[in-house]
């Protein structure tokens, strides 16, 4: 269940609850082998702006991939295009290398080839299948899920939602308040019990080696900046909080309303 803000109670102390671990940003190292030049270019471009998945290699055939693996590359996830040709023998050669840890395998198959691809899955086992055409977002989401597991993937989804909300409110990503607000939301979502605003300031300040007042001030500046943009989403958050559409959301109300949005989107 998503966490929430606790109203009117003191911040967490030593006797109230343990300090939750910082929600980390675990990256997944992946290697991609695709027969399609355009697909390879899209993968490279998308990876440049999505640091959660590091594309350690994007190659055009199995021979290049095997050479990299033999030279020491050990990704967490291997993405293989079934149109490379000889993909079953390629998987056998990869497994014969006895990589440690053994990478998870994701096969990309065009929709007309899904029957053949599913037969191949039955033969090789321990593979996932993603049908093409697919969005780069869906591909990278699947790679991340396979690399980190469900718990970290949930944090990844929460961060993605936070960033999308901030973009919709035309937040300036250069403002430190964006990062602080995202961290506070992650703490609030993953906490075992509702947390006070003061506790969230404290944890976020500790993570960033700064003062709680600096965190509060940065989030306040962010909220006022977004108020000036006057986007439909910011006005909607004001209405949710019972404020005029032109109001500047106080930090607590901004956080609470964004938590409600996350609750609707993240199961």
Count up the helices. Answer: 11
Low-confidence spans: pLDDT under 50, at least 5 residues?
Answer: 6-19
CATH topology of the largest domain: Rossmann fold
Q: Which strand order spans the largest sheet, edge to edge or round the barrel?
A: 2-1-3-4-5
> Quick one: CATH class of the largest domain?
Alpha Beta
State the end-to-end CA separation: 8 Å
Approximately how much beta-strand content do the residues carry? 5-15%
Q: State the CATH superfamily name of the largest domain.
A: Response regulator
Q: Return the structural class.
A: alpha/beta
Mean pLDDT across all residues, rounded?
A: 84
Please give the domain count.
2
Order of H and E elements: EHEHEHEHEHHHHHHH
Task: Please tell me the CATH architecture of the largest domain by its name.
Answer: 3-Layer(aba) Sandwich
Calculate Rg over CA atoms. Answer: 22 Å
Q: Report the sheet with the most strands, covering strand number, pairing sense and barrel closure.
A: 5 strands, parallel
How much helix, percentage-wise, in residues?
Answer: 40-55%
Write the layout of secondary structure elements.
Blueprint: E1 28-33, H1 37-48, E2 53-59, H2 62-70, E3 77-81, H3 87-96, E4 104-110, H4 114-124, E5 127-132, H5 136-148, H6 150-168, H7 176-190, H8 197-208, H9 212-229, H10 232-240, H11 251-265
Parallel strand pairs: 1-2, 1-3, 3-4, 4-5
Protein architecture, described:
- By secondary structure, the chain is an alpha/beta fold.
- 54% of the residues lie in helices and 12% in strands.
- It has eleven helices and five strands.
- The longest helix is centred in the middle third of the chain and has 19 residues.
- It is elongated and about 65 Å long.
